[in-house]
Protein backbone atom coordinates (compact mmCIF):
# COMPACT_ATOMS: atom_id res chain seq x y z
CA UNK A 1 0.00 0.00 0.00
CA UNK A 2 1.28 3.44 -0.96
CA UNK A 3 -0.11 6.58 0.68
CA UNK A 4 0.46 10.19 -0.29
CA UNK A 5 -0.67 13.74 0.36
CA UNK A 6 -1.38 15.73 -2.78
CA UNK A 7 -1.34 19.53 -2.46
CA UNK A 8 -3.35 21.30 -5.13
CA UNK A 9 -3.42 24.74 -6.68
CA UNK A 10 -6.93 25.41 -7.99
CA UNK A 11 -8.46 28.13 -10.16
CA UNK A 12 -10.25 30.89 -8.28
CA UNK A 13 -13.91 30.07 -7.76
CA UNK A 14 -13.54 26.33 -8.46
CA UNK A 15 -12.32 25.00 -5.11
CA UNK A 16 -15.69 23.65 -3.94
CA UNK A 17 -16.37 21.85 -7.24
CA UNK A 18 -12.85 20.36 -7.33
CA UNK A 19 -13.20 19.07 -3.75
CA UNK A 20 -16.49 17.39 -4.69
CA UNK A 21 -14.84 15.68 -7.68
CA UNK A 22 -11.79 14.61 -5.65
CA UNK A 23 -14.00 12.81 -3.13
CA UNK A 24 -15.39 10.64 -5.96
CA UNK A 25 -11.97 9.21 -6.86
CA UNK A 26 -11.41 5.68 -5.51
CA UNK A 27 -8.56 5.75 -3.00
CA UNK A 28 -9.10 9.34 -1.90
CA UNK A 29 -9.66 9.06 1.84
CA UNK A 30 -9.79 12.80 2.60
CA UNK A 31 -9.99 16.02 0.58
CA UNK A 32 -9.98 19.39 2.31
CA UNK A 33 -9.85 23.01 1.23
CA UNK A 34 -7.08 24.81 3.14
CA UNK A 35 -5.53 28.24 3.57
CA UNK A 36 -1.94 29.06 2.68
CA UNK A 37 0.06 28.50 -0.49
CA UNK A 38 -2.19 25.62 -1.61
CA UNK A 39 -5.95 25.51 -2.05
CA UNK A 40 -6.59 21.86 -1.13
CA UNK A 41 -4.90 18.84 0.40
CA UNK A 42 -5.86 15.30 -0.54
CA UNK A 43 -4.91 12.05 1.22
CA UNK A 44 -4.83 9.21 -1.29
CA UNK A 45 -4.07 5.49 -1.09
CA UNK A 46 -3.09 3.09 -3.86
CA UNK A 47 -1.85 -0.48 -4.18
CA UNK A 48 1.48 0.57 -5.67
CA UNK A 49 3.39 3.55 -7.05
CA UNK A 50 2.11 2.96 -10.59
CA UNK A 51 -1.51 3.11 -9.45
CA UNK A 52 -0.80 6.22 -7.40
CA UNK A 53 0.79 7.90 -10.41
CA UNK A 54 -2.21 7.06 -12.61
CA UNK A 55 -4.65 8.43 -10.03
CA UNK A 56 -2.76 11.71 -9.88
CA UNK A 57 -2.04 12.13 -13.60
CA UNK A 58 -5.30 10.77 -15.00
CA UNK A 59 -7.87 11.43 -12.30
CA UNK A 60 -6.75 14.49 -10.36
CA UNK A 61 -5.06 16.43 -13.17
CA UNK A 62 -8.10 15.99 -15.41
CA UNK A 63 -10.48 17.71 -12.98
CA UNK A 64 -11.56 21.08 -14.36
CA UNK A 65 -9.97 23.79 -12.23
CA UNK A 66 -6.86 21.92 -11.10
CA UNK A 67 -3.83 24.01 -12.04
CA UNK A 68 -0.96 22.17 -10.35
CA UNK A 69 -0.18 19.42 -7.84
CA UNK A 70 2.65 18.66 -5.47
CA UNK A 71 2.81 15.10 -4.15
CA UNK A 72 4.35 14.02 -0.85
CA UNK A 73 4.57 10.22 -0.61
CA UNK A 74 4.31 8.87 2.93
CA UNK A 75 7.43 6.96 3.99
CA UNK A 76 7.34 4.29 6.64
CA UNK A 77 9.97 4.73 9.33
CA UNK A 78 10.94 1.63 11.24
CA UNK A 79 11.34 2.13 14.95
CA UNK A 80 14.42 0.59 16.55
Automatic annotation (TrEMBL):
What the entry lists under InterPro entries is as follows:
Dimeric_a/b-barrel, Tscrpt_reg_AsnC/Lrp_C
Residues annotated as domain Transcription regulator AsnC/Lrp ligand binding = 6-76
What species was this sequence derived from?
Pyrococcus horikoshii
- Superkingdom is Archaea
Q: What is this protein called?
A: Lrp/AsnC family transcriptional regulator
**What taxonomic ancestry is recorded?**
Archaea, Methanobacteriati, Methanobacteriota, Thermococci, Thermococcales
Pfam families in the record, alphabetically?
AsnC_trans_reg (PF01037)
Amino acid sequence: MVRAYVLLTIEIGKVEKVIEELKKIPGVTKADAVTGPYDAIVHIEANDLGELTRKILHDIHNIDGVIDTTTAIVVEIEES
